[in-house]
Amino acid sequence: MPNIAHTYYPQSGRLVILGAGESGVGAAILGKDKGFDVFVSDMGSISDKYKADLQAEGIAFEEGQHSEELILNADLVVKSPGIPEKAPMIKKLRAAGLPIISEIEFAAQYTDAKLFCITGSNGKTTTTLLTYHILKNGGMDVGLAGNIGNSFALQVAREHHEAYVLEISSFMLDDMYHFRADVAVILNITPDHLDRYDYKMENYVASKFRMVQNQTSADYFIYCMDDPETMAALAKHPTAAVHLPFTYDSMTELGAYVDTAKNINILVPNRDAFIMNIEELSLQGKHNVYNNMASGLVGKIQQLRNKAMMESMSSFTNVEHRLEHVAIIGGVNYINDSKATNVNSVWYALESFSTDIVLIMGGVDKGNDYEMLKDLVRSKVKAIICIGKDTGRIHEAFEDDTEVIVNSASMSDAVQIASHLAKKGDTVLLSPACASFDWFKNYEDRGDKFKEAVMTL
Fold first, then answer.
1. Per-residue pLDDT tens for 218-250?
2. 242 Cβ partners below 8 Å, 6+ apart?
3. Which residues participate in ATP binding (predicted)?
4. I need a surface site. Which of 31, 246, 337, 456 has the fewest CB within 10 A?
5. Is 402 among the annotated ligand-binding positions?
């Protein structure tokens, strides 16, 4: 059975896609294959690649505008997760009472594949990739989609896997109503994107818990017992799914925990136990132990062999721009963590390294509260080099916690300064805590510029 009953949404008529990125173009192709009259509209410019895809499929589109007469006649609307509710066209569509859903919601109607869905404020990309790695190496026919990889809708249209690992953001979840995850994973919930949630943490938490809203007793819910926001929200968001918590700080009869010998123990009903020492994991650091426990639970639910899981968890290499090792130059370790666009991600990064750290941070501040970093900065960071436009708040936050805070004129300048401040055995860590759109195109561009600067030292 598909993951959504077809009767919830129109199965023919005019399908309007707002946003012509990876998810929008994928949804357009699936819609065309299912017989819809498809129209794609993007307020910005459409990249040459996606324009060529739409032209090759014979799908009508526009860019640089939203034409009301071509949009408000829709029977069904699929919108990009990046478009906020306050956007004028969304308000008009809502006023007209038209159904607006996400690409994930749309595509789930047309597949009976198992869906392993992962969300969380931090670690979801790593955990999604690790889960995909474990399942693929374990012999499953599995696709990778959501916030990462190729469009879910495009894969449902043209590839047909028996399972998908989906990285799901809160923005995607906001437009998902009848979707059901066979396995839902909530890694953690910390303040992020609060501007989209009326600056209310409870609204953001409720968005994350939409992951479990349609689960049945045949499904599984994996979550972190050590995360206070998740634990506080459990009672408000009940689910019939089998609960499998994971914890570093205590023990659990079902789920996953770390014992006194530093072994991960994974215990799933009607499956054999899985035990692996954390020192054998390819990804080190406490946050990566959590990520491995979550991914390992998914693998064990699927009854993968312990040997195959161990091989996968000891061989996995992390996503680019997330705690990515760049080089060791003059005994100094250079780490690219450009994907760390919020304070909590930086906390995880600082927690991962024990040596003296020269921290490169800054960019477009999203209303960050740096308080949670102060203890780690005091104990581990010997210098902070600021990049980007919002440097004042970083100086204010940490002026009493580290001896050196300096501004830089460019990424190359920041890396040069770092190389002079760092000694043999130190770590130079790019972990910005901020968005990248002042000096760079995106966080990938920021990370690439860091790596280029390091390699010219």
1. 999 999 999 999 999 999 999 999 999 999 999
2. 217, 219, 220, 221, 254, 269
3. 120-126
4. 456
5. no
